[in-house]
Amino acid sequence: MSVSRASSRTYLRLSILSALGLLAVNTAMAATSENTSIDDSNLPQVELDEIVVTATRTPTKVSNVIAQTRVVNSKELKRYQGQTVLEVLKRQPGISHYTNGGMGTVSNLYMRGYDGKQILVLIDGIRYSSLSTGTSALNLLPADQIDRIEILYGASGSSIYGADAMGGVIQVFTKGSNVEKTNYSVTAGVGSNDQYLYGASAQFTNDTGTALSLSASHNETDGINATLPDPSNQYAPYNKDDDGFESDNVSIALNQRINDQWSAGASALYSESTTYFDNGAAQNVYSDQETGAAQAFVDWRYQPGSSVKLQYGHSIDNIDTETYASNYDTEQDQVSLVGQHSLPIGTGIYGAEYLNQSIDTTDYDIDDRDVTSAFLGYVLANDKFDAQANLRYDDNSQYGDETTYNLGGALHINPNLRIGASYAKGFRAPSFNDLYSPFGGNAELTPEASDNYEAFIEYDTTIQSTRLTGYHNKVDDLISYVSNPTPSNPYAGASENVNEAEIKGITLTSDWIIDDYLFGASYDHQQAKDSSGGSNDGNFLAIRPEHKGLIYAGYRLSSFDIRAEYEYVGDYYSNTVNAESQFVDHYGLFNISGNYQLTDNLTMTARLDNITNEKYITLPGYDTDGINYFTSLTYNWY
User: Fold this and answer.
1) Separation between Cα atoms, residue 638 and residue 619, nearest integer Å
2) What stretches of 150-306 show up as alpha helix (H) in DSSP?
3) Nearest to 379 by CA among 336, 349, 337, 339
4) What range does the domain containing 290 cover?
5) Strands (E), 13-133
């Protein structure tokens, strides 16, 4: 296997000693804190009330956003070195997942009961997904190339961004948007399963308003054995081997402040990877994949609170699988003009977009479609009342036009307590596989549609933020494969708009900061069920656990940060038939991570996952890793 390396047992011992050293340093700091003078200005400030743009398309405080929004910032992302965006997201509230083995293998994400095809993923505002499958390769996006992630729950994103956002929006921001000073860094890391990470980055800034960020990394691992033997068939082909993964990643961002009114910039994130997987008894089966997105913009701020931004973006998702002699190269080109204008009360938002989506393959009769869109919005955010309204029109060359909208409001009962509710209309466009696959495509499919209701109560103070959100969603015209065997073809069938679903649940989140201590918890109770009236009526949808929770505690100083967490995922089924053979038992994972600034220039990061070596699966027939670790050293020049 091309990614194999010598054993790293020696380094494992060193990493365990390092983890013990982190705990020792923590104890020593606590013991000497009373006799040590600490400059509070140097302590890291954890911002509970962060500014987000995904929820409204204009900078808005999280405490003024109607739909639930969560931010994973750069401080938290440091704990995920050597991992992917999927590893970051699967621990967030309201999100469940599965993987077909180790790093890089096929996976899918579910948010509040919605499938990954119903969740829009953006990189710096540009659509990022495979047009064939409809999902995004979050399992290939490297966490070390990213500055922050914004998660918008619910369907309000449909009336802001269009198709495929009826389950929510995940926006990834690359590094370089907030370069404060010129610096350089190199990183080297090692982990379980012979994982190795090498990376370097450079950021430049000057007095003329120029900021440039460059970053590159190489990540590889021998991986784990991806599949498990079939207990019902001892003669089934089974290849017990490690299935490796390697990737080369690069990101770049350039921003130029021209004057007080004008700015321009560009950014790109690109990843090239090879993933090995099991295919019966075949040896060294793999697929190559290229993913990424690039964008360039010009921004005119003609008065305080008012601006116009013109942006062009291009994204790719190209996969070449040797085993099946298949190749799917997908591209998306997007041009958008988005403006915001400060009104006497609130802010008006308007825009127009053009999107071209194309796929290069011999499997489809039609390989190109265009979407022309226009939208209007209004945002009110103050200390008394918050409101948001959006209306969007999309004209698709394949299936015609769709109009979506959302309305929401929140009342500040007092400076700390807020209650609110919203309604949103969402839809998902059929993927090219749904429409034109030779194995059951149906060109007559119409978009899936949803009605989404949400209500919440939120309590915020200077030391904590707690929110209880309830939601109830109804989904119509769900696209499913319907078997229709014939004498000449017993496997015949086609995709149809036949299913309906009802999704309801609650999400409780609470995050606290008391002095240097951080702790919090989240809990999700969800019922996502088939409501089609057919044979599966009342059954749970696949990969939607009824219960999910996480609790964490941490300690943070300017040079030291450690966090322990316990994640619980309840029982679920891997298909809507709810067959016993597709039942996945609940599991709980205990993880610990931290970083320590050894000197002014040298920082160590360490992570130990599944400390109790829990044996679990996320999908029947596919393996998961036991106790595993990753640790790295980063050296910075300023």
Assistant:
1) 46
2) 158-161
3) 349
4) 9-34+43-637
5) 51-52, 60-61, 69-72, 95-99, 107-111, 120-123, 126-127
Nearest to 166 by CA among 497, 388, 454, 373: 454
**Pairing mode, strands 146-153 and 69-72:** antiparallel
Secondary structure (DSSP) of 594-610 = EEEE-SSSEEEEEEEE-
Q: For residues 373 and 395, what is the distance between their CA atoms, to the nearest angstrom?
A: 6
Helix (H) or strand (E) holding 22: helix 9-32
Distance, CA of 622 to CA of 288 (rounded, Å):
21
* DSSP category for residue 582: G
Q: Could you tell me if residue 111 is inside a domain? A: yes
- Which amino acid, 261? Q
With contact defined as beta carbons under 8 Å apart, do 262 and 287 qualify?
A: no
Between CA 274 and CA 290 the distance in angstroms is: 9
Q: What is the pLDDT of residue 47?
A: 52
Query: Residue 637 carries which side chain, given as an amino acid letter?
Result: W
Placement of tokens 């057919």 in the chain: 534
What are 268's two structure tokens?
């790109």
Burial of 186 (C-beta count, 10 Å sphere; 0-12/13-18/19+): middle
Q: Is 444 exposed, middle or buried (0-12, 13-18, 19+ CB in 10 A)?
A: exposed
Domains contained in the chain, number = 1
pLDDT in the model for residue 19: 39
Domain harbouring 593, CATH code: 2.40.170.20
Tokens 């989506």 -> residue: 357
Interacting residues of 531 by C-beta distance below 8 A, sequence separation 6+: 474, 500, 501, 502, 537, 538
Report d(CA 506, CA 77) in Å as an integer.
Answer: 26
Q: What is the DSSP string of 471-539?
A: EEEEEEEEEEEEE---SS-TT-EEEEEEEEEEEEEEEEEEEEEETTEEEEEEEEEEEEEE-SSSTTTTP
User: Is residue 608, in this structure, part of any structural domain at all?
Assistant: yes
- Residues 6+ positions from 393 with CB-CB distance below 8 Å: 373, 374, 375, 401, 402, 403
On whether the CB atoms of residues 331 and 358 are closer than 8 A, the answer is yes
- Establish if 2 belongs to a structural domain: no
Give the end-to-end CA distance of the chain in Å, rounded to a whole number.
Answer: 39
Answer yes or no: is 4 within a domain.
no
By CB atoms closer than 10 A (0-12, 13-18, 19+), residue 599 is exposed
Q: What is the 3-state secondary structure (H, E, C) of 176-205?
A: CCCCCCCEEEEEEEEECCCEEEEEEEEEEE
CB atoms within 10 A of CB 51: 12
Structural contact between residues 579 and 613, judged by C-beta atoms closer than 8 angstroms: no
Nearest Cα to Cα of residue 128 among 336, 353, 328, 315: 315
Ranges of the chain whose pLDDT falls below 50:
1-46
Q: Which of 227, 254, 224, 258 is nearest to 102 (CA)?
A: 224
pLDDT at residue number 18: 43
pLDDT at 386: 97
In angstroms, rounded to a whole number, what is the distance separating the alpha carbons of residues 23 and 17? 10
Cα 239 off chain centre by: 31
Q: Which amino acid is at 204?
A: F
Rg of the chain's alpha carbons, rounded to an integer? 24
State the amino acid at position 10 in one-letter form. T
254-285 exposure pattern, b = at least 16 Cβ within 10 A, e = fewer: bbeeeeeeebebbbbbbbbbbbbbbbeeeeeb
Can you give the length of the chain in residues?
Answer: 638
